[in-house]
């Protein structure tokens, strides 16, 4: 193997030293490209096989059938991309400024969108940067073969990040880091150079179990075990068709994804905000009312979600999700009339069922409100005759 670089005198060094120098350079180049952390690991993921198979056997993947396929490629990365012997794992922070978690979650007539999805689709942003990193390395080493991945192929991203020293696995199953909490995306560059590997971080959640208790749908069925079928992120993003009645109230005003297990995690107190403008919130998501978002035409949905991860769910599931939140909102005559109008032209059985459910929920609240008001009036009439 020969490493070439006009500015660095690799040729004077032994191969081991050259690789160590290159690994250090890769980390510096990665940071210059906007990754907050870069780690390197080998490709032995064999210890994850039984854990992964157990997940599939339990059926936790629900309708994400792609998780059932290519299991060998997940465990043996060189079967996914031949000659891979190392993986460069990167993280990129995404928490936008002005995240307004509590304000948005507590306003039941507004929509809560997972903070990772307020801006541009991270797949594109990160893949481009990883490609640039690969090209930069190739300038130093012509023999380099590389392939970037971000959430798009059978890759065990958590397991790789953990091995490469990016963080440890939290009980909510996400990768956690002392400095960054969990508000970051993961990505990988598969390479064929035997670079020195980083040490795995020795840390764990200790006795904390806050994410397990706070989860609105009890989706974290045991530490490190997530039943995706119960997870609001799955229900609002991946799941097609009807959302089971069992989960609807718990969904609250979360119309796309869920952050609760991260919001409660003590490590996220230390998380930095992203400086990546692409992940900043689009203006209309900052204080989006449910009625406003629900009223988007299909064209408006496509225009407003261009380049956003939200676009993938399509306008049908967008409306389905928002109607659940509308049913959960406090009583509002405008919400009822908005849903009733939408019912007039709706042909989808799923949407008709969701809108009808949401109207029923609203009417129940109206009846309850009326009952309480009537009760109060009766009390006043009896007890405060002068006022009656
Ligand atoms: C499918 C998927 C989902 C599914 C299922 C998630 C799941 N945990 O299974 C759903 C739709 C629910 C989902 C939700 C979210 N996701 Co997602 N998702 C993925 C995806 C594509 C695959 C994950 C996977 O393979 N799951 C299958 C199971 C078996 O894998 P696993 O969870 O890693 O399981 C391992 C551990 O449980 C571990 N394990 C089991 N027992 C034990 C015991 C001990 C002691 C230990 C240490 C480990 C351990 O071994 C298992 C096998 O390796 C990855 C990208 C990728 N290719 O990895 C993104 C990814 C995990 N998602 C991501 C994000 C951001 C989210 C959300 C936060 C989005 C949101 N706000 O709504 C939520 C978080 C929900 C949660 N608590 O996990 C990020 C996570 C970044 C990070 N910091 O960790 C990823 C890495 C995408 C990316 N490139 O950045 N996601
Ligand atoms: S994302 Fe929400 S629903 Fe899913 S595990 Fe975390 S808290 Fe539970
Ligand atoms: S909330 Fe507690 S248990 Fe859950 S991931 Fe964070 S530290 Fe671990």
Polypeptide structure, described:
The protein is an alpha+beta fold and 388 residues long. The chain folds into two domains: 10-191, no CATH class; 210-264 and 289-378, no CATH class. The chain is built from 17 helices and ten strands. The protein has helices at residues 15-32, 49-58, 71-75, 77-80, 101-106, 122-140, 157-163, 210-214, 232-238, 245-251, 260-263, 283-286, 290-294, 298-304, 314-328, 333-344, 349-383; strands at 37-41, 86-93, 112-113, 146-149, 168-169, 175-176, 184-191, 220-222, 225-226, 254-256. The strands form four sheets. It has a four-stranded antiparallel beta sheet with strand order 1-2-7-4, with helices on both faces. A two-stranded parallel sheet has the order 3-10. A two-stranded antiparallel sheet has the order 5-6. It is elongated, with a radius of gyration of 25 Å. The N and C termini lie far apart (95 Å). The model is unreliable at 4-9 (pLDDT under 50). Residues 170-172, 176, 205, 208-211, 264-267 line the site of one iron/sulfur cluster. One iron/sulfur cluster binds at residues 172, 215-217, 219-220, 226, 231-233, 258, 260-261.
């Amino acid at each position: 193997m020969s490493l070439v670089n006009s500015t660095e005198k690799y040729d004077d060094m032994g191969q081991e030293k050259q690789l160590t120098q290159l690994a250090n350079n890769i980390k510096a180049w990665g940071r210059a490209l906007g990754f907050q952390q870069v780690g390197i690991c080998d490709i032995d993921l064999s210890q994850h096989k039984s854990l992964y198979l157990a997940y599939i056997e339990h059926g936790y993947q629900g309708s994400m059938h792609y998780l059932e396929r290519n299991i060998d490629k997940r465990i043996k990365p060189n079967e996914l991309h031949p000659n891979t012997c190392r993986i460069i794992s990167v993280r990129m922070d995404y928490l936008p400024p002005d995240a307004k978690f509590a304000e948005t979650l507590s306003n039941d007539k507004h929509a809560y969108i997972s903070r990772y999805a307020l801006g541009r689709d991270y797949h594109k942003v990160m893949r481009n940067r990883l490609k640039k990193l690969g090209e930069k390395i190739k300038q130093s080493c012509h023999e380099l073969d590389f392939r970037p991945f971000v959430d798009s192929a059978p890759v065990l991203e958590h397991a790789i990040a953990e091995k490469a020293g990016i963080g440890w696995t939290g009980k909510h199953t996400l990768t956690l880091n002392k400095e960054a909490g969990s508000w970051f995306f993961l990505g990988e560059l598969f390479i064929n150079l035997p670079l020195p590997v980083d040490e795995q971080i020795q840390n764990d959640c200790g006795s904390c179990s806050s994410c397990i208790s706070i989860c609105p749908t009890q989706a974290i069925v045991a530490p490190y075990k997530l039943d995706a079928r119960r997870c609001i992120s799955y229900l609002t993003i991946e799941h097609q068709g009807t959302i089971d009645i069992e989960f609807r109230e718990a969904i609250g005003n979360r119309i796309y994804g869920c952050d609760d297990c991260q919001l409660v995690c003590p490590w996220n107190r230390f998380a930095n905000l992203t400086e990546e403008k692409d992940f900043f919130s689009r203006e209309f998501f900052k204080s989006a009312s449910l009625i406003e978002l629900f009223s988007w035409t299909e064209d408006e949905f496509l225009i407003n979600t261009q380049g956003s991860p939200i676009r993938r769910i399509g306008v049908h599931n967008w409306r389905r999700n928002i109607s659940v939140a509308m049913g959960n909102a406090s009583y509002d005559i405008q919400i009822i009339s908005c849903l009733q109008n939408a019912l007039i032209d709706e042909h989808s059985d799923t949407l008709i069922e969701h809108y009808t459910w949401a109207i029923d929920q609203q009417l129940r609240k109206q009846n309850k409100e009326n009952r309480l008001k009537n009760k109060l009036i009766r009390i006043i009439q009896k007890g405060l005759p002068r006022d009656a």
